[in-house]
Write a structure and sequence with these properties.
mainly alpha; 6 helices; about 75% helix
Length: about 150
């Protein structure tokens, strides 16, 4: 397997998994219940919420696919733009945290607005917490592996 593809694939799998685990934990802490329909809810972005909730396991697998597709897409995007944008080679931790903010804003304010789910209302306090979590679990691992792949210290 090509080294680039393998690195992007493993990084995308890692960040997609840590991101969804974080979402499950956050939802559990907030409600006290296991969010058993989370993947159905994600599928609601394509199917609409009523159809996704009624869709059972098939809709849940579609939600799982959507989740990992988005995680892999943002991972691949960063790996592709990194060598073209020299300012990204500044500091892998800061760049990773800022990339997480970028990803969060694109997903919440662009992608979700194009789906039946709609965008979440903007609250700087709520976003700040999610940006920190997303930065640690998503942005920094992407930046770290990208720096490592391209030999940037």
């Amino acid at each position: 397997m090509n080294k680039f593809f393998k690195t992007v694939l493993l990084t995308g799998l890692f960040v997609g998994t840590t991101d969804i685990l974080s979402a499950f934990i956050t939802a559990y802490i907030g409600s006290g219940k296991f969010p058993g329909k989370m993947f159905n809810y994600i599928a609601g972005g394509g199917l609409g919420i009523p159809a996704a909730i009624k869709g059972g396991t098939a809709a849940a697998f579609l939600g799982l696919f959507f989740h990992y597709f988005i995680a892999f897409s943002f991972t691949l995007f960063f790996f592709l733009v990194f060598p073209k944008l020299k300012f990204l080679a500044f500091n892998k931790y800061l760049v990773g945290m800022l990339y997480a903010v970028f990803v969060s804003m694109v997903v919440d304010q662009v992608i979700l607005r194009l789906t039946p789910l709609g965008a979440f209302p903007f609250s700087l306090a709520d976003y700040f917490i999610s940006w920190v979590i997303l930065g640690i679990l998503f942005g920094v691992p992407i930046a770290y592996n990208t720096y490592k792949y391209y030999g940037v210290e």
